[in-house]
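Bumping with the actual sequence this time:
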Amino acid sequence: MNHLDLPLDQHLEGVDRALATWTETEKSRIEDAQRACVSEVAKDEQELRQLQERQASLQANAKTAEASREQQKRSIHGRENELRGLQAQVLKVEPVLAGLKSREALHRGNVAMVNEESARMTQAHQTVVDELMKGIHMYQKLGLVIDRKGESNLGFVFTQIDPQNPAREFSFALRMHERQDVFAVEHCVPDVADAPILLDQLNQTGNMSAFVRAMRQRYKSLV
């Protein structure tokens, strides 16, 4: 071997060692970089999975919220339909209610009028009865007894008419129709043929004394 080749060989060996050292260093650096990259990738993958899970959860929540909103919309729509139905019923009921209120007011007015008329008739009837009862003593001198029977009936019994039998009784009864403010003959013993005519005159004039005198005259004509 040429002595000039020795330094070259040594130089090449040094280069080889340096290259090997650099190679090992670079390899180690690359491996460290790869491990770091793998770690970063794993970390990124974990974060990605977490983000995907979060996204899935948000999507599920969004679907649930959307379903809830749809349910609320359907519920609101149903309530709106129910409300419109109730409003339609109210519109139908209001005229009926107004009519009922109007009829109620009319009925109350009619009741008030009937009550007033009844009170007036009752007062008129009571006035007639009171006047008759005041004249009892005077009529008794003529052999007349007036018997009040209930609120609306009066009985008239005459004696001292038949000279052959002064105790013989001639009688009739009057009943007053309070609603019509008229008198009616309940019975008449003995019968007086024109009693209905005399009764009409009584109801037209209200003159009870004239009616009683006329009935006594009719009884006298029957003796």
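The tokens above came from a reply further down the thread. The chain has four helices and four strands.
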